[in-house]
Amino acid sequence: QVQLVESGGGLVQAGGSLRLSCAASGSTFGISVMGWYRQAPGKQRELVAHINSGGMTNHADSVKGRFAISRDNAKNAVYLQMNSLKPEDTAVYYCNVKRYWGTDFWGQGTQVTVSS
After folding, report:
1. Using CB atoms within 10 A of its CB, is residue 113 exposed (0-12), middle (13-18) or buried (19+)?
2. Mean of pLDDT values over 16-45
């Protein structure tokens, strides 16, 4: 079993920055892809960005150029640097990790609120 602990969410004004962190613990052997998803009120959960064990990344078009995902394999951690935040970025952000054999684990979610 993998446990995910998220931190870094909060309130910020438009144009500001936040850095989300997610640390995995427990049975961390075999973790491949790590990522961040978000869900705004009334909307479906969507992929924000993910990164594989070799450091290859993918970012949603809506956040390209503003957000950057990274990971520290030694610490079993994944990060999301969020710059130039917009009100439409307001959502609950969820950390996600996948094992090589397909097992999925989710964090509890952390609220990000961007005021105009």
Report:
1. middle
2. 96
